[in-house]
Design brief:
mainly alpha, about 55% helix, elongated, DUF6042
Length: about 220
């Protein structure tokens, strides 16, 4: 992959387009990048796109059902062939199809890449879900470290922000953000003499996991 493709892939990830892109649609999107790099256009480009067969490696079973549900929620159907993949990319405004001076069709990325909320019909619930996914993605290392610490304490932890920081190396501000998020989610409960976001480094706190919510939102605890 060239640098341009790597940057585009990174942006797609940051914008959380993967929530709305079926596996074959994303692979079609990547192929359009290859067509641009190889300067393929017209009938040759169309044939390569429309006759490509992509192996489905990840999006099967429940993952596929969830993607179908998300697409239906925002007014789209799950694609079953490359033409429908292209139509979905066009409706998302991720690509455009133009004609060159010889009348050949040219498949191009739309630059700058739009964010999902800029081009999709998202209700408030979906916007909140997208915001939460982005928060978790941004703080994924902090989530992993803090949850590991709590789980290693059998789901019950008496501690301070300083202690959490010393063990996990997560910044104090990020610790408060993640704990507050998990409290609002319902996965954990925090007992302290002040709101989580107002905690000082040495304030004692008691954290315990709400097993029912945690296993629904996170993963099963053995």
């Amino acid at each position: 992959m060239g640098n341009k493709e790597i940057n585009i892939t990174k942006l797609m990830e940051e914008y959380m387009w993967f929530r709305y892109l079926p596996e074959t649609t994303y692979k079609t999107y990547i192929m359009i990048g290859h067509l641009q790099n190889e300067d393929l256009r017209g009938e040759e480009a169309s044939k390569k796109l429309l006759t490509s067969h992509f192996e489905i490696k990840h999006e099967t079973g429940q993952l596929k059902e969830e993607k179908e549900r998300v697409l239906q929620k925002i007014g789209h159907k799950y694609p079953t062939n490359r033409l429908e993949d292209l139509e979905l990319l066009l409706s998302y405004r991720l690509i455009k199809v133009v004609k060159d001076e010889d009348g050949n069709l040219v498949y191009l990325y739309n630059i700058p890449i739009p964010k999902p909320e800029e081009v999709l019909n998202l209700d408030q619930e979906e916007k909140s879900i997208l915001e939460n996914i982005r928060f978790e993605f941004k703080h994924q290392d902090a989530f992993n470290s803090i949850l590991t610490l709590i789980l290693n304490s059998n789901g019950n932890l008496m501690t301070t922000l300083d202690n959490i920081h010393d063990v996990t190396k997560v910044k104090h501000s990020d610790i408060k953000e993640v704990l507050d998020y998990l409290v609002k989610e319902g996965s954990i409960k925090v007992k302290a003499d002040k709101d989580v976001k107002q905690l000082r480094k040495s304030d004692k706190i008691y954290i315990n996991i709400d097993k029912d919510v945690f296993e629904k939102k996170r993963f099963i605890i053995d």
